C-alpha cells in the first residue's frame, strides 16, 4: 500500500495516478467483464485536460491576512470540487465539473480555522470542510451553493502527543491514514482503523462521517475510538474532556460525530489506540446454502468471540471479488490479539460454522481471505477503469436486524435488477457483510452493469434511487458508514425522527448562525 | 434478591421495608462501625410519620380526562419528593421533606403521556419523570420548582415484543429490573444490566441517566445496549429505527441518552439482549502494593480479554466491604460466556496479575468475590441504617485516564480527609473500580464518617463540594454513571464545552418550548 504522500493525486479519479489500473491488469479486468457481460460496450475513455474544463475565475477574494492560505489554481479547485463516488468520477471523465470552489484554503493551525470561519461568516461564503476528499455521497461538493471555499485540513496533520499508559494520542484532524500509522508505529501502537479509503482519507473525515473501519465486530465505527474531540464552530471552540467513559449528560462528542462538517470543523481528537497485534488466526468457510451461511454468521456475531474480520461474501461477491465459486458464499474469518493466542477462538468459530453446514478451507494456503483482501484495496482503482469503459460500478451499504435481512436483500436485489432493466443496463449485484453485530449485519452491495457512455450517471442515479427506496421501505438505514452527504438526503430525511431533525436544526442555528458550514449536507441550506 | 413488586416500599429510605437492616445484622453493623470510628455518636433515629410532615394540599388539579391517572395522597407525593441519596434519606429522617410534587401522575399508555405533557405545557406545570426514584443526584426532586407533578412511568411496564433472532426486545420504560429479567428468562435471554439499584430502578431511568451496569468492560453503560428509542417530547414523538449500527448523521439516540428527562419522556426502547451465560470463571487476586494492582488492572483492561467483572478494591474498600486485609487491595475478576469456555481467559488474566505482583486466591472457596457481591446488594440498606445512626455514608464516582488516576486518587482522598476534618467528621474513604477501559478506570469512592445528628447533610455537602472540586481540578468527569441531576450541576457546567451547552439549550427550547421537563436538571430552569 503506497502512502498518500508518495504519489500524484488524480484530480478526476481515485488515489494516485501511479497506482491506476493499466496495461495487463487493465486488459485482464476488461476481459473478465466482457466474459461476464458480453453486451457491454467497453470502450475506453480518457479524462479531459483541466485546461479544457472552463473553470471560471474565483468569485471571492480572501482578506490579505488569509491570502497565504488560499489557492485559486484551477487544478487545485477542480480537484476539490467533488468526492470520489462513481458519479463523481464519470462526471469528471465527461468534463462536467459543475460548481467548483472559489478557493482552496489550507489553514496551518487552529487559529487559521477560526479566522477563516470568521471571514466566511461575515462575508456569507459557504465553507466545505475537506479531508481526503474521498466522500462517495456528495459530502464535499458545492451544489447550488454560491460563493464557496473548500477548507482543506491537510496541513493540520500532526500527532501532537502520545499517552502510552492510556494508549491514546492527540492527533490533528488532517492527517491521512498511512502517515498516522507511521507516526504511531514507533510506539508499538496503531489506531487500527482501516476503511477502504484508508490511504486517501483523514482522521477528521472519519470522525465527521462516522466511518467504519477494520474491526468487523465491537469497535466497528470510529465513534468507539474517540476519547475527546476539539471542534471549531462559528460560535466558539468546543473541547471535551479526555475520558474513558462518562455519564454526564448526553455525550458532546456524539453530537459532532456524524455531523459531516455542518456544525463545526473538527481540528483534533484524542483517539484510543491498540497495541499492534502479534497473534493472528484466520480461515475461510464455504457454504452450500446462503441461508445457512447467514445463520452461521449470526451465531458467530452472537457468540462473544468477537472476530476482527467476519465478512460473509454472497455467491456473486465470492465469485467476482474472491475468485471463489461457492453456491452458498464464503465467510472470511480473522482473529487477532496483541496479548493472547487466538487459535481456540477460531476453532470455536469454525465449529459454529460446521454446525450450520460450513466447510472450513484448509488454512495456510493462499485462500479466499488473501485474494479478497488484495482485491479490496484495488477495488476503487478498478472501479475507475471500469467507469472509463462505460460500466456502471458502484456500491451502497446499510444495516438491519437479522430477521429483516432476508427480505431486505431480496428487495434490494430485485429493485436493483428491475432498475437496471429499466435503465437498459445489463449487470449483476453482489452482497457482503462488512460488519456484523449481535442484532444484525451491515450488508454492503456492489453493482456491476454495462452502461451507455454519456448516460451512466443518469442510469446509476435511477438504480440508486430504486435501491435506496428499497432500503427505506425495509426500515434499514440509508448508510452504515458511507455518511449522508447531499446524495442520501431524501432517505436520511425519511429515516430521521422529526423531533431529532428539529433538534439538529436548532443546534445548527446556534453553532453556525450564518449557515456557512457545508450547506445542503444533513440539512437544507438556509436561503 | 427480592423483587420490587414483592415488598412494601420505604417512603424515606432505600428499597423495601421488609429488607431493612434490623436485629442482629443492625447490631453487628453498628458494632463494626464503633470499632472503626470509636468517637461516633451512633444513636439510632427513626423516621417520622407521614402525617407529621405537614404536606400541603396540591396546588394543581388535573383536567377531568386525566384525573383517573392522578394521586394526591400525601404518602404517595412524599414518596416521590426526592431520590435515595444519603442527603435525601437523612432529610426524610429529619422530617424535612421540602417541596413535594402536587400530584403523582401514572400514565397507562403513551397516549396518556402525550396528554399529560399537553396539559402541563398549557398550564405551565413542571413535569418530573419518575422511574424507580433511585436517583442519588437530585434528579427527581422539585427544587424551587413551583407547580409540579411527578410523572411515574411505573404502569408502562410491559415487554411488548421479543425478537429472538436479533436477541432484542421492545420494552416499556417503566419496567423494573427484576420484572424485566423475569419476562426475558423464558426466552433464555437477559439484558444483563445490573446497576446496584437494579431492584428499584427502571429501564427508562437507566436510559435517561446513562446508567452503568453489570459489565466491567466493553458494554459498560446502558447506552451500548440500545437498538432504538421511543421518546415523547412536547414537540412530538421521536422514534429511531431499529438498527444494529448506523452512520447516518449524529445518533438520535445519543441525544436522548443522558438527557435525564429534560428533553422528553422515554416511553419504550428496543434493547439488545444476551444469551444467559452458561460458563463462568472467577478469582480474587491480592496485591501487596496498590500501584502494582492498578498496573495489573490496566494491563487486563488493555488485554482484550474483556472480563465481565474487573473490580479493583483498594485496601480500605477490601477491608470494609470484602473483609479482606490486603495492603495492596484485591482485584475481583469474573469471566462469563454463553458460548465457550472461559478458563483460558481467566488463566491469562491471572498470569498478567502475577506479572505485576498479584497473588491469585485459591478458587472454589468462598472468597472475596462472594463476600463483596453480597455486601454490594446490602450496601444501600446498610447505608440507611448508618445514616439513621448519625453516620455520613455516601459514594461518588468518576472516570479518568490511567495516567491521571494516581494524582486524582490522592487529590480526592486528601480533599475528602481535609473536608471531613473541617466538618468535624472522623472517617475513612474507600475506592474501587466499578468499570475499566483500555484508556482508564472508573473509580468509585465511598465515604464513611461519624457525623453530628442534625448536621450530617451539611457536613456531607461540604465533603461533596471538596471532592467534586478535586475531580474538576483533575479533569475527571463529575459522573461516570450516577448522572448529573441537580446536585452535580456546578461541576457539570464546568466540564461541558460551552458550544455544546449552547447546543443543548437550543435543543431544549425546541423540544420543550415551555420548559416544563425536569427544570433545573442539566440546564437552568427558564424563569
UniProtKB/TrEMBL annotation, chains A, B:
InterPro entries: Alkyl-DHAP_Synthase, FAD-bd_oxidored_4_C, FAD-bd_PCMH, FAD-bd_PCMH-like_sf, FAD-bd_PCMH_sub2, FAD-linked_Oxase-like_C, Oxid_FAD_bind_N. Belongs to the FAD-binding oxidoreductase/transferase type 4 family. PANTHER family: ALKYLDIHYDROXYACETONEPHOSPHATE SYNTHASE, PEROXISOMAL. It comes from Actinomadura monticuli. The keyword Flavoprotein applies. It holds the Pfam family FAD-oxidase_C. Keywords: FAD, Flavoprotein. The keyword Flavoprotein applies. Residues 97-276 form the FAD-binding PCMH-type domain. SUPFAM superfamilies: FAD-binding/transporter-associated domain-like, FAD-linked oxidases, C-terminal domain. This is FAD-binding oxidoreductase. It comes from the Bacteria.
Amino acid at each position: 500500500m503506497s502512502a498518500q504522500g508518495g504519489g500524484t493525486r488524480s484530480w478526476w479519479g481515485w488515489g494516485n495516478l501511479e497506482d491506476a489500473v493499466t496495461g495487463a491488469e487493465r486488459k485482464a479486468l476488461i476481459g473478465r467483464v466482457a466474459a461476464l457481460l458480453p453486451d457491454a460496450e467497453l470502450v475506453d475513455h480518457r479524462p479531459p485536460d483541466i485546461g479544457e474544463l472552463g473553470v471560471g475565475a474565483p468569485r471571492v477574494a480572501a482578506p490579505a491576512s488569509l491570502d497565504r492560505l488560499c489557492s485559486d489554481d484551477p487544478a487545485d479547485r477542480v480537484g476539490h470540487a467533488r468526492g470520489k463516488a462513481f458519479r463523481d468520477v464519470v462526471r469528471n471523465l465527461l468534463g462536467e465539473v459543475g460548481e467548483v470552489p472559489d478557493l482552496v484554503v489550507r489553514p496551518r493551525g487552529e487559529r487559521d480555522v477560526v479566522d477563516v470561519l470568521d471571514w466566511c461568516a461575515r462575508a456569507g461564503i459557504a465553507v466545505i470542510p475537506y479531508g481526503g476528499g474521498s466522500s462517495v455521497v456528495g459530502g464535499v461538493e458545492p451544489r447550488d451553493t454560491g460563493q464557496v471555499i473548500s477548507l482543506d485540513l491537510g496541513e493540520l496533520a500532526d500527532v501532537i502527543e502520545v499517552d502510552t499508559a492510556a494508549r491514546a494520542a492527540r492527533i490533528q484532524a488532517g492527517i491521512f491514514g498511512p502517515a498516522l500509522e507511521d507516526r504511531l508505529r514507533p510506539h508499538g501502537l496503531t489506531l487500527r482503523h482501516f476503511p477502504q479509503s484508508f490511504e486517501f482519507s483523514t482522521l477528521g473525515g472519519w470522525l465527521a462521517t462516522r466511518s467504519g473501519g477494520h474491526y468487523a465486530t465491537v469497535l466497528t465505527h470510529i465513534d468507539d475510538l474517540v476519547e475527546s474531540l476539539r471542534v471549531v464552530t462559528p460560535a466558539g471552540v468546543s473541547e471535551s474532556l479526555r475520558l474513558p467513559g462518562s455519564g454526564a449528560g448526553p455525550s458532546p462528542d456524539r453530537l459532532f460525530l456524524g455531523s459531516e462538517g455542518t456544525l463545526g470543523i473538527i481540528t483534533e481528537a484524542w483517539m484510543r489506540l491498540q497495541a499492534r497485534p502479534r497473534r493472528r488466526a484466520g480461515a475461510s468457510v464455504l457454504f452450500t446454502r446462503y441461508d445457512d451461511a447467514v445463520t452461521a454468521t449470526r451465531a458467530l456475531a452472537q457468540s462473544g468471540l468477537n472476530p476482527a474480520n467476519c465478512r460473509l461474501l454472497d455467491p456473486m461477491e465470492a465469485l467476482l471479488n474472491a475468485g471463489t465459486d461457492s453456491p452458498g458464499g464464503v465467510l472470511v474469518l480473522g482473529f487477532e490479539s496483541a496479548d493472547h493466542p487466538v487459535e481456540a477462538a477460531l476453532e470455536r468459530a469454525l465449529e459454529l460454522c460446521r454446525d450450520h453446514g460450513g466447510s472450513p478451507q484448509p488454512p495456510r494456503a493462499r485462500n479466499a481471505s488473501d485474494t479478497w483482501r488484495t482485491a479490496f484495496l484495488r477495488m476503487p482503482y478498478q472501479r475507475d477503469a471500469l467507469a472509463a469503459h462505460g460500466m456502471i460500478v458502484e456500491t451502497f451499504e446499510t444495516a438491519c436486524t437479522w430477521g429483516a435481512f432476508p427480505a431486505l436483500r431480496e428487495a434490494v436485489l430485485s429493485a436493483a435488477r428491475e432498475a437496471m432493466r429499466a435503465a437498459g443496463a445489463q449487470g449483476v449485484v453482489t452482497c457482503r457483510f462488512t460488519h456484523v453485530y449481535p442484532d444484525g449485519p451491515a450488508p454492503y452491495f456492489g453493482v456491476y452493469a454495462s452502461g451507455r457512455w454519456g448516460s451512466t450517471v443518469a442510469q446509476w442515479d435511477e438504480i440508486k434511487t430504486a435501491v435506496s427506496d428499497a432500503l427505506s421501505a425495509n426500515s434499514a438505514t440509508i448508510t452504515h458508514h458511507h455518511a449522508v452527504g447531499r446524495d442520501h438526503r431524501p432517505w436520511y430525511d425519511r429515516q430521521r425522527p422529526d423531533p431529532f431533525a428539529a433538534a439538529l436544526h436548532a443546534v445548527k442555528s446556534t453553532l453556525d448562525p450564518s449557515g456557512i458550514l457545508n450547506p445542503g449536507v444533513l440539512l437544507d441550506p438556509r436561503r
